[in-house]
Design brief:
3 strands; 53% helix; DNA polymerase III subunit gamma/tau; mainly alpha; single chain; GMP Synthetase, Chain A, domain 3; 2 domains
Length: 163
């Protein structure tokens, strides 16, 4: 014995009542699912990207990561591919592990584009920032390069400190 509602033929009584056959409901839900599954893709400019990037950097709490993300401007490679140059591999590793997913989510929401991708690369050649002096001797050498008379003053006054 078969149940009445399991029959796949259309019912005249249901059609007169305004009820749709099950196959129509399946078509509607499939179309709705396709609409939801399509990513939101709105075009954006490099200026909008820079604004959103700066807004995100303000929210970063770790000072090293904040500094790494604010050193340069992000560049828009394609319509939605973002490239950002870093100084070293350590920065890249930390940003990929700790910040990249949050950054992607923020940029995608803010710029209303689900296809945005961010790539971190190490700067080389002309893109690399000059190396900063860290130790006292490196700082002294950098100051002497800018102002050679400092070396003469040191010798003249007999100053003795690590150089």
């Amino acid at each position: 014995m078969t149940r009445r509602d399991s029959i796949s033929t259309p019912s005249i009584a249901n059609a007169l009542r305004g009820n749709k056959p099950a196959s129509e409901y399946k078509k509607e839900t499939t179309q709705q699912a396709k609409q939801v599954a399509e990513p939101e893709v709105h075009p954006f400019t490099g200026e909008k990207l820079a604004e959103a990037w700066t807004e995100f950097v303000v929210r970063v709490e770790a000072p090293q990561l904040k500094a790494a993300l604010s050193t340069r401007e992000p560049s828009l490679v394609d319509e939605w591919n973002v490239n950002y140059l870093l100084d070293n591999e350590t920065q890249r590793e930390r940003l990929v592990l700790e910040v990249k997913l949050k950054l992607l989510g923020f940029l995608r929401r803010t710029l209303r584009n689900e296809r945005i991708e961010v790539e971190f690369q190490i700067a080389e050649g002309d893109d690399a920032l000059p190396r900063r002096p860290y130790s006292d001797s490196e700082k002294w050498q950098a100051m002497v390069e800018v102002n050679p008379s400092l070396a003469q003053f040191k010798k003249m006054f007999g100053l003795d400190f690590d150089s």
